[in-house]
Amino acid sequence: MEEDQEKYLEDARKVVKEQAYFMRASLEKAQLKDALRYSSAMLSELKTSLLSPRNYYILFMQVFDEMRILENYFKEEYRRGRKMPDLYESVQHATYVIPRLYLLITVGSVFIQTHEIGAKVILLDLLECIKAIQHPLRGLFIRYYFLKLCKDRLPDTGSEYEGQGGNIDDAIEIIIRNLSEMNKLWIRMQGSKDKSKRERERLDLKVTIGENVTRLSNLEGVSLDTYKTKVLPKIIDIITSSKDPISQTYLMDCTIQAFPDEYHLQTLQELLKVCTTQLEPTVDIKNIFINLMGRLADFALNNDMGTFNSEVDIYSMFKQNIDKMLDSNSQIEFKNLLDLQVAFLNFTLRCYPQNSEYVNDILKSCCRLCERQNETDFTEECQKNIVKFLAMPLDTMSLSILTMNEYPNLMKHLPFQKRRQVAIKICQAVINLNQVIEDLKITEELLKFISPLLITQNDYVEIAENEFEEEQQLVARTVHLVSNHDLSIQNTILQKFIAKFKLGDINRQKYTYPAAIFALFKLIQQIFTQGGPQTQDTQYKILFDQIKELIEVIQGNFAELALKLYLNFLLCINIVDQNQEFDEFSYDLGTQIITIFQDEIGDSNLKVILLNQIMSTFAKLNCINPENFDTLAGNATQQAAKLLKKNEQAIGVLNAAHMFYNDYQRNSQRVQECFKKALKIANQSIGNNPKFVYVFIQILNKYFYFFEKVEFKEAEIQEVIKIILEKLPKALTDNDEQSKKIKILWAATQEIVKERKRRSIQAYQQINI
Amino acid sequence: MATNFEIVIIKIQTFRNFENFIVYMNTENTINQQQKYKLNQLSNLWYKYTIIEAALLNLVQGAPTIDIYLDGLETRKIARFNDKQQGLIGLPVYSGNDDITGLVDLKMNKNKKIDHLGLRIELLGRIEIINDQKQSSDFISLGKELETQGIIMEDKTYKFQFNKFEKQYESYYGKEVKLRYYLRVILQRNYGQVKKEVEFAVQIGEQEQVDQGQSTLKLEVGIEDCLHIEFEYFKSRYHLRDVVQGKVNFYLVNIKIKNMELVLIRKEQIGIGSSQQIDNETLIKYELMDGCPQKGEVVPIRLFLSGINMSPSFNNVGGKFSVKYILNLILLDEDDRKYFKQQEIKVYRKR
After folding, report:
1. Counting C-beta atoms within 10 Å of the first and last residue's C-beta, which end of chain A has fewer, N or C?
2. Contacts A138 to B, Cβ<8 Å
């Protein structure tokens, strides 16, 4: 089939090329008669019924180009004295109607240019003659040819053909008539066989029909008033008199695209009325509205909004018409109505970003629409639209719209997955806007909407781990937006979240609790900055207990996480409790930390890391009294000695020294003990493993750190240096990773010593490495 | 006898139909007695084949020649006819009260003297039924004596004049019938005659007959449940350079129409009654519409008659023949079935 098409086209093009060649040759020899004969033969190719619309178009364009040559020759002939009326008649002697009319239009175009006869007379005559082509495809093309050729010959306002040749009314009349006829032909193409193929073919041809509308819009004489009174009513007549959805859709769209926005503003009521009450039910009104609203919104944004708002009440017009459509109980599909609502909401949000009342009204209509439907009507697509509907206002309007009554009403039409989507969208919107959550009522609504993320609802659907994690993180991020200058309220809001989080299971709490806990940390610091608790419910004790409670829940399943939270908790307490009022509480936490570390953490590598964190956290604490602290630090040090590998043990113990000597602790003895222990472990191992020299170098460096704080025995240090220097060469024999590490560390150490010596720091003078 | 026998082969026209390729053989230098020969051996000739006049006998003494010169030919309108024998010819037109005047030129052609029985000019109007000479007859015959019996010694020129001769019928050159006017000059001699003929045309213009009524030709036709149309020609009478205009209304279209055409037919009716012969000739086929219209469509009809070589309609000319023009509107469907309706139109010559 396709191949045949190619062949048919190829053959036809060949004939056209051949005959065009002869035609031009005859024109060069000024043999008009022959030229007409050849052009006629060329044009006869357009009689074909074999070609698809696309291929016919290709052939048409080829002929079209050749006909321009002939047209120019006619002009020359006129200058040479040929009588146009004679030529106009003589081409009508052609036997076949297709070549005859193409020639007639071509001569007619030249005839008009002579001004010997009014443009209108010729154009109307041509239009009359063209009726002879009743074949849809060929008819459309010859009328398209007519449009192309008469393009600049219309008696438009200000054109050279105005006056004797007619006026703008005639120009409009001519094109409207052509449009009407073309539309009929176009509709006739539909036929009954092979519906979808026909529709495709028809859509391939739509530009030929649209050309009429373009012509109309290009007429100088079509002012707003003319458009309103003479053009639009006629176009609407054409649109509504056909019962063809494709045609109605296209012509509406075309009209909206072709004419200026001001015109649409002034005729909006009319346009909308047609759309909502006079089109076929299968016409995609939604798209027409979307286009129209899109254009008007652009127009509004590019122009003075004032005129947009005052002159015509666009919102109300759309609203009325859309509502009318909703209530008309028509056959328009629910899905399309919903689409329309979405588009309208979008439009309203763009044009009236501040007007939440409008938004609520649209929501109301939408609810009304949804109420009417059966459950089965809510297809996947409809649900998507409702999701959009709920999420869209959030992007531009404040969270307050969440308090609109209609929101939950719409939400209930959605199955779980969609509710989840809405919830996600809401969270995203809140996060993207970086909106502060400061209102209790909004918080309540918000929590309602995002509860698909917070609790396991009846129709809950499992999702992949990573997706779950993502959504829970969204929730976590939302919590961080809670804020209020009144910390008591801020606390209340947080408590609302926490209360809800408690209902979610541990899998969610893994994400939500830490977020809530950190939000509480922040709150506690804010309270502290404000000068301490102002109200009953923001007493530290209450908050601390709550946090502890929350962490304990985590602890059951996620020990490591709980451990880290405890550490952060301690740091938080440390900020507000320099007076050690919560000494026992804090000590308890510390003990808890050690217990978790000891009992719950198995992975040795993780242990190294965590212990490091524990010790560095402890080193910063001042909220525990010295005695208790000493116990805690001691426990931590013991844990270091229990690490799996010797080097880890040595370095762990070494690091423990920091706990005893820092901003708050000055316990030199314990520091020295740490060194001793570390050295002891190191000495035990260096015999078997020269690489252990790395630990020694670290010990040496640690000496340097404490040099000016703690007194060490000189011999002890020299002993370390001795071992290093002795073992180093052996340790460096291999060229493996470890050796490299040692090399680097050693070089850095040497550099430090060198530099400190240069600065004549006393302690270093004895270090020779 | 042999010495006086002359054979002149005059122009042989090419005809498409070689079977009937005809040579007219004349015993004298005029076209008088015609004999038909089928010359099958010439049937492969396509081009115009002309044999120039040749005298086979009478070499020593040439026959006298006669020429007829009509006055004022340079200003007279020329009518063109497609004659079956002569091809396309152009003849001077006389109409209304026109006189026909001119000169007759007699040349001696080396003759010292000519003994004759009289020189006479005749104006003849003749209806010729081409395939049946018996039916042919003159409807007008006017004669004038230019010279009474006697002897002519030198070349001589005679004036002649037929004043306001009766122009009852128009000249017509059809397929089966001709109506021709001609002047004939005959020099009668004892041993035969010298003859010369000149054709001319008569055309009868008619007044624009307003009162005679331009009725529209309107007809509804159809086939039940299939097709119902109404066609209309705005006029029933047309002059020769007129335009046939009209329209076709489609009321019901349940067949798949491929196209619609208008055919103009010339109908020659020869004789009357049972022996009447009818010849239909299609003058032009003209496509009116491409494709299948829908109910409610109106398709215009516009046919320029000026491009068609036609005569006025004739009704019972001299009791011998009539010429009628018929418009045949044909609808062709996609199964190549034809639906047609014929309508006669009157054609007249505008004065």
Report:
1. N
2. 290-291
pLDDT for B265-309, tens place per residue?
999 999 877 788 899 999 999 999 999 999 999 999 999 998 888
The answer to whether the CB of B104 falls within 8 A of the CB of B121 is: yes
Assigned CATH class of B65-202: mainly beta
Low-confidence spans in chain A with pLDDT less than 70: 1-2, 192, 304-312, 329-331, 398
User: Is B291 close to A138, i.e. CB distance below 8 A?
Assistant: yes
A624's tokens: 């525990």
Q: Between β-strands B87-94 and B78-83, what pairing exists: parallel, antiparallel or unpaired? A: antiparallel
pLDDT interval class at B21 (50, 70, 90): very low
What is the pLDDT, as a whole number, of residue B194? Answer: 86
Write down the ipTM of this complex. Answer: 0.76
Contact by Cβ (8 Å): A658, A636: no
The per-residue pLDDT for A305 is: 57
Tell me the longest C-alpha to C-alpha distance in chain A: 129
For residues A335 and A346, give the distance between their C-alpha atoms in angstroms, rounded to a whole number: 16
Express each pLDDT in A48-74 by its tens digit: 999 999 999 999 999 999 999 999 999
**CA-based nearest distance B200→chain A, Å:** 29
**Positive or negative torsion for Cα B265, B266, B268, B272:** positive
Write the burial class of residue A205 (CB in 10 Å: 0-12 exposed, 13-18 middle, 19+ buried).
buried
User: What is the reported pTM?
Assistant: 0.68
Residues 6+ apart with CB under 8 A from A380: none
d(CA A62, CA A20): 10
Give me chain A's average pLDDT, please. Answer: 89
User: Which pairing describes strands B217-223 and B237-239: parallel, antiparallel, or unpaired?
Assistant: unpaired
Question: What residue spans of A114-191 are helical by DSSP H?
Answer: 119-130, 136-150, 168-188
What's the rounded Cα separation, in Å, for the pair A463 and A417? 10
Q: Is B217-348 assigned to CATH 2.60.40.640?
A: yes
Query: Which run of H or E residues covers position A476?
Result: helix A465-479
| H or E element, residue B193 | strand B192-202
Q: Which residues are bridge partners to B329 per DSSP?
A: B262, B341
Task: Tell me the shortest Cα–Cα distance from B242 to chain A, in angstroms.
Answer: 12
Task: For B62-80, give the DSSP string.
Answer: PPPEEEEEETTTTTS-EEE
Q: Where in chain B is the domain with CATH 2.60.40.640?
A: 65-202, 217-348
